[in-house]
Design a protein that fits this description.
Blueprint (H helix, E strand, L loop, with lengths): L1 E11 L7 E9 L3 E5 L6 H8 L5 E8 L6 E4 L11 H11 L4 H14 L15 H15 L3 E5 L7 H16 L3 E6 L2 H7 L2 E6 L2 E6 L1 H8 L6 H9 L3
Parallel strand pairs: 3-7, 3-8, 5-6, 6-7
Antiparallel strand pairs: 1-2, 1-4, 8-9
Helix pairs in contact: 2-4, 7-8
C-alpha cells in the first residue's frame, strides 16, 4: 500500500530560485526509503517541501487516508525552553489527542528505550545534542503514525542511540508504517534501507533498490557510494 506519494515540479525559498526540481518518490507500507545525497543535494529541502514548510512549492504531496497521519523528525531539535522533557511529551499527546491511559505507558517505554527516564523532569535545553535528538525521536515515535519523515537522524546520536532508533523503526515497519529518511551516511543507509532515492544538485539522479542502482551503474558488486560517484562524476 502506498502511504506517501510526492511529485514536486519545483520548490525553493524564493520565487526567483529553484532549490529542487522534478522530484518524484513514493513510500509504501513497510518500506524504509533512503533519500540519499551529499550536503547541499536538496534532501532537507525536499523534506521541507513535503511538510509544507517552503514558501514556494509547485507540486503535489499525497498521504494515504483522509488525515495526514505522519510524524516529522527534523535534523535540528525544536524544543520549548520552559518545558521539561515530560511536559514536551504531554503537550504532544494533547495535540494529537492520545488518551492518558495510552500515553503514559507508551511514553515510559520510549524513555526507557532511549535511556532518558532519569531526566524526564529536566529541561531538554540543558541536554547534549545527542540527548536532544533522542527527545525528537521519542516525540515522533509517541504518535505511532503511518508515515515517518526523518531528516538526518544519525547526527549527534551515539552508537547505542543509533541502534535503539533503528530497532524501533524496524518495529514500526513490521506493523505497516513507512519511512522516508534523508541521510548522507551512505554506509549505514546501504545496510538498512529497502530502496533509495539518490539526489544531487537539487534533482533525482537514480532510484530503486541497491541491486537496481548497481545494474543502472553497471557496478554489480560495488557499494552505494561507488554507484553514486559514478552517477554524478565531478558535478
Amino acid at each position: 500500500m502506498e502511504l506517501l506519494k510526492v511529485n514536486i515540479n519545483h520548490a525553493g525559498y524564493s520565487s526567483n530560485t529553484d532549490v529542487i526540481k522534478n522530484v518524484a518518490l513514493s513510500v509504501k507500507s513497510g518500506e524504509l526509503v533512503g533519500l540519499i545525497g551529499p550536503n547541499g543535494a536538496g534532501k532537507s529541502t525536499t523534506i521541507k517541501a513535503i511538510m509544507g514548510l517552503l514558501p514556494v512549492m509547485d507540486g503535489k504531496v499525497e498521504f494515504a487516508g483522509e488525515s495526514k497521519n505522519y510524524a516529522y523528525i527534523p535534523e535540528q531539535p525544536v524544543l520549548y525552553e520552559g518545558l521539561t522533557l515530560w511536559e514536551h511529551l504531554e503537550l504532544a499527546a494533547a495535540a494529537y489527542e492520545i488518551k492518558r491511559k495510552v500515553f503514559v505507558p507508551r511514553a515510559d517505554d520510549l524513555l526507557k528505550l532511549f535511556h532518558l527516564t532519569e531526566v524526564k523532569h529536566h529541561l531538554p535545553g540543558t541536554f547534549s545534542k545527542g540527548m536532544q535528538q533522542k527527545v525528537m525521536l521519542i516525540l515522533g515515535f509517541l504518535l505511532e503514525p503511518s508515515v515517518y519523515v526523518v531528516d538526518e537522524p544519525f547526527i549527534g546520536l551515539d552508537p547505542r542511540g543509533t541502534k535503539d532508533f533503528l530497532a524501533h523503526i524496524n518495529q514500526a515497519r513490521a506493523k505497516g508504517a513507512g519511512v522516508l529518511m534523508s541521510t548522507h551516511v551512505l554506509d549505514t543507509a546501504e545496510k538498512i534501507c529497502s530502496s533509495f532515492v539518490l539526489m544531487n544538485a537539487g534533482t533525482i539522479v537514480s532510484r530503486g533498490t541497491l541491486m537496481e542502482i548497481r545494474e543502472q551503474c553497471q557496478l554489480p558488486k560495488d557499494s552505494l557510494l561507488d554507484c553514486f560517484d559514478k552517477l554524478v562524476g565531478n558535478s
